[in-house]
Amino acid sequence: MSTKVLRIKEIEKTFITERGAQVNALKDINLSVDKNEFICLLGPSGCGKSTLLRLIAGLEVETKGEIFYQGESLTKGHKDIGMVFQQYSLLPWRTVINNVTLGLEFAGIKKKRRKEIAEQYLTLVGLQNYSNSYPYELSGGMQQRVAIARALASDPQLLLMDEPFGALDAHTRILLQQELLNIWRQNKKTIIFVTHSVDEAVYLADRIVVMTSGPGRIKDIINVSMPRPRERSNPQFGKLTSMLLNMLTEESSNNNDNVINL
Ligand code: ADP
Ligand code: MG
């Protein structure tokens, strides 16, 4: 039997900009996520993907609706929920290991234990030899690995990832996608991963939530039943990719009318 860890009910989010315009970022969002599921949120830029993740993380407050985590209403985030941001968001004045221990410090874990945990996750992402380096000494892909290690070190059950590989070159991106799937399988996480890359969504997801823009709604939810590891050369992969690309093209030709100037 599947267990729903997250339920998003009738979520709507409207921003009021500094100039007084009203932006309807999200409307009628209903989604339930199973434990250990890998969900990709796919949609054009500006359709509200980051807003939805930030609502789940408790970094924004919904205008309408409610989000439940393990049956409890989520109002200010939850200790079991971790986030990896689009920018690497490492603290430049801290070494790699001290970036990874950050959440553990907030959680009040003792220094020796923090170091052990951080080393374990740095090994998992292949950066055990860079503990004492500073972020500027690392490539973009390595910095993103540190950000992933930092998020994993707090052992979140639900991991929210906002276009984490968006800024990486194609080769590094594919390697990190494979690593992420390994980590997900070994550590039994539930992941909600935002991307605007169709290829990435088809490679990673159990289910792809396709969003429309202006305001962001769920257009469709696609089950990806292809076994892993998925081969990009598999005709099924190509078929699904082109179907999703058509959906997105259709979407971007629709007018965006989510901004109302008051
Ligand atoms: P995505 O991540 O899909 O690119 P976002 O969630 O960042 O989209 O944004 C969705 C919409 O909400 C956009 O129109 C964006 O301009 C608007 N928006 C996001 N954050 C704010 C904010 N703090 N104030 C005003 N508008 C915002
Ligand atoms: Mg975004």
Written account of the structure:
The strands form two sheets. A six-stranded mixed sheet has the order 6-7-8-3-9-10, with helices on both faces. It has a five-stranded antiparallel sheet with strand order 5-4-1-2-11, with helices on one face. The protein is of the alpha/beta class and 262 residues long. The radius of gyration is 19 Å and the shape is globular. The chain has helices at residues 49-57, 96-100, 102-106, 111-124, 140-153, 170-187, 198-204, 235-252; strands at 4-16, 22-34, 38-42, 64-69, 72-73, 81-84, 158-162, 190-195, 207-212, 217-223, 259-260. The model has no long low-confidence stretch (mean pLDDT 92). It has two domains: 4-80 and 157-254, Rossmann fold; 91-155, no CATH class. The structure holds adenosine-5'-diphosphate and magnesium ion. Magnesium ion binds at residues 49-50, 162. Adenosine-5'-diphosphate binds next to strand 2 and helix 1.
Q: Provide the CATH architecture of the largest domain.
A: 3-Layer(aba) Sandwich
By DSSP (H or I, 4+ residues per run), the number of helices equals 8
Spell out the helices and strands N to C.
Answer: EEEHEEEHHHHEHEHEEHE
The residue ranges in which pLDDT falls below 50 over 5 or more consecutive positions are none
Report mean pLDDT, rounded to a whole number: 92
- CATH superfamily descriptor of the largest domain: P-loop containing nucleotide triphosphate hydrolases
Strand order, largest beta sheet: 6-7-8-3-9-10
How many strands, what sense, and barrel or not for the largest sheet? Answer: 6 strands, mixed
Q: From the helix content, strand content and strand pairing, which structural class follows? A: alpha/beta
Number of domains: 2
Cα-to-Cα separation, first versus last residue:
49 Å
Q: Work out the radius of gyration.
A: 19 Å
So what's the overall shape? globular
CATH class of the largest domain: Alpha Beta
Proportion of strand residues = 25-35%
Give the tally of β-strands: 11
CATH topology of the largest domain: Rossmann fold
Percent helix: 25-40%
Could you say which small molecules are bound to this protein?
adenosine-5'-diphosphate, magnesium ion
